[in-house]
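BUG: 3D viewer hangs when loading the predicted structure for this chain

Environment: internal workstation, default settings.
Expected: structure renders.
Actual: progress bar stalls at 90%.

Input used:
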Amino acid sequence: MDWQTVVTSAAVGSLVSSIATLLGQRSERSARKRELLMSKAIELGMAKGEVHREQMLIQSRKMGLPVMAKDDIFWIEDHFRTLS
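C-alpha cells produced before the viewer hung:
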C-alpha cells in the first residue's frame, strides 16, 4: 500500500466522522430546544390553568351557575404551540 492510499483513507474517514458528529450535534440541539420549550410550556400552562380556574370559580359564585374550567393540558398545548 502506498502512502497516498493511506492519506486518502484517513481523509475520507475524518470527513465521514466529522459529518456524523455534526448531524449528532444538530439532533442534540434540536432535542434540547424541544425539551426547554416543553418545560416552559408546562410551567406557563400550569400557572395559566390555575388563574383560569380561580376566575371561573369567582364567576360561578357570582352567577350561581356551574362552569367548567379547561384542563391544564389545553393551556400547556397552547403555550407549546405559541413558543414553537
